[in-house]
Write a structure and sequence with these properties.
mainly alpha
Length: 176
Amino acid sequence: MGSLIEDLKKVKPEFRNEFDNYIQKVKLENREELSNLHSTISSLRDQLESTKFKTKDLVQRAVSNKTDEINQLKLTISELRVQLENLKFEKQKAIQEAILNSSQEIKDLKLSVSELRSELENLKFEKKEEVQKTLLSSSDEIKQLKSSTQTLRDELEKVLLKYEKKIGNKKNEQKK
């Protein structure tokens, strides 16, 4: 193609001017486009650097924030563990105190039960003794009453016999 252009340039001198102008125009357009492309590339590089910087800054801030949050959470966890341990200790202490109090109360109740049993046994024994005495006393009284009753019967019979004799004597006297 280069030889055809050279031939045309020789044959037609106005083609040469026109061709050179066209070449100049294309070169100028290419230079402008190249300059625009370089400018765009430079601008894009600047934007990329700016974006990288902003992104890096945002990432660092996010990492820093998350690190702070993690540290706060670790601190909270640590405090909660301490509180949990304290609660466990207090609960264990309360359980031990309750067991101790219950043990003491059980001992006291056992002692009271033992004392009440002894008292009940004594009362049973005293009651039995009183019943025995009452029975013995009643038995003696019954014997005395029986004896008195027998004596009174005997006397009554004597009195009746006397009256019967008197009545019989009076009847005999009246028949005579």
